[in-house]
């Protein structure tokens, strides 16, 4: 028995399918019902045409909102989940509604991180104000599937104001998630500065806020040093187009050091961007990227269904193995085949 199977509750029954029409699901979702949200999110992850249609119908009723879509990224072990737990609690106590989505590109293969790993969001799990979806993983590369954008919208329909998306340390998903959110938060742990070198410049340039986590106990000095090296590195980065300076804040999920400062930084980021129109532009950009992904996905899926393409693909794979053709030529052959099919 695989590890995955061992963790599955034998009494678990899949929710009865087709128990909802789009109208019923929309109504329940808008009332904030968590079970319906979970149901809607699994539908969003499904590739069955009937489910795609259901999500599309439900999302017809989506109304623009002033929510905060925030990505929490950073190297594995930096304390992202623990941060979300402690900061999420802070917000929930102020009566804010928070939905947390985790993008975990590794889960389709290993299964491990969904069920094996703890989410480290123990104190949030039973909070009324909080909804946690431990693994909104996708089958697409980088773990950011079109389902993730749909999931964000569905959470907003259910009345969540903060949509927090945690990435699980794979470079690709960290870039891809930036297309889904309004604000990009990068969390690092205190280190000698080597830590920073592990973070690609391109990812640092995405950051709207840097958090040096674990600034507690004997790590306080080291955290201050890390803060200084981030600030030094920042001055060399290409600024984001909103023109706002990305702050660096030391934090501790244990002592809640600077928890208010982080809340203020987030609020002020959103306020400024609402005023400047950057927020509204970002939302348009998110829709445009989503459209782009959907179109590309549909093109690939429909082309891959064509029998001639499947045949030529496997023949090319064979020829490449025998060094009879180079990938670049193979690409051209595929293009020509497609063109001929449509002429
Ligand atoms: N001392 C201290 N440890 C922390 C803090 N935040 C997280 N940790 C620890 O760092 C480890 C990794 O945390 P986790 O949230 O799973 O990191 P993630 O991989 O970035 O999500 C865990 O052992 C946490 O207990 C903090 O603020 N202070
Ligand atoms: Mg985590």
Structural notes for this entry:
The protein has 343 residues and is α/β, with parallel strands linked by helices. It folds into three domains: 17-61, Single alpha-helices involved in coiled-coils or other helix-helix interfaces, CATH 1.20.5; 64-276, P-loop containing nucleotide triphosphate hydrolases (Rossmann fold, 3-Layer(aba) Sandwich); 291-342, no CATH class. It has helices at residues 3-7, 22-30, 34-45, 49-59, 80-93, 107-110, 112-115, 146-157, 171-176, 194-197, 201-204, 220-234, 259-276, 278-305, 307-321, 327-342, and strands at residues 68-73, 98-103, 130-133, 162-167, 183-188, 209-212, 247-250. It has a seven-stranded parallel β-sheet, with helices on both faces. Helix 12 links the parallel strand 6 (209-212) and strand 7. Helix 2 packs across helix 4, helix 3 (34-45) runs antiparallel to helix 8 and helix 15 packs antiparallel against helix 16 (327-342). It starts with a helix and ends with a helix. Residues 1-7, 107-117 and 138-143 have low confidence and may be disordered. Guanosine-5'-diphosphate binds next to helix 5.
